[in-house]
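Render Cell wall mannoprotein 1 in 3D.
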Amino acid sequence: MYLKPTITLLLTLLLPLTSTTPLNRRDASTVIADLNTISADIADFDAAVNVFDGSLAQALAIQTKENKMEDDIQTAIGHTQSSAAFTTAESTAVTNTLLDLEPDILSSLNLVVSKKTLFVKAGVKSLVHLDLQNLKAKTDGMSTALQAKVTAADKATIASHTVDVDAAFNSAISAFS
């Protein structure tokens, strides 16, 4: 009597769950694509910082680019954590892609510091300080996630380079303190 409508309702509610597309597979190629996205984010961020003249409108544009970078790093962390341990070849490819980002990160941090007086003029010095702290935390999170998936040798390489990147972040954060 009341059972048929209840079963119909349950099937109506549960059927979409069983027929949805399965979760996308997370693997080294996904992580490499994420790292390439982060590379593009750094380039976009740098382009905005390069033309920054101290105006609040341009500071907002930079903030938007920084937020996208944070979001994309967080996505990469999630994809990395969802991946199985990488094979030796995958580990090497991911590590090399990550290491390709290091000069861009260091250059970007130097660029931001070189524009400090303009950030102060725009009244966003404390926001830049906070953004640098957030990016450092996300970058460290990415390093930790990757170290859990790569080979022992690549883990040591990533850890070593993370120390260098952290030093650059700490210097930039200190400049905005």
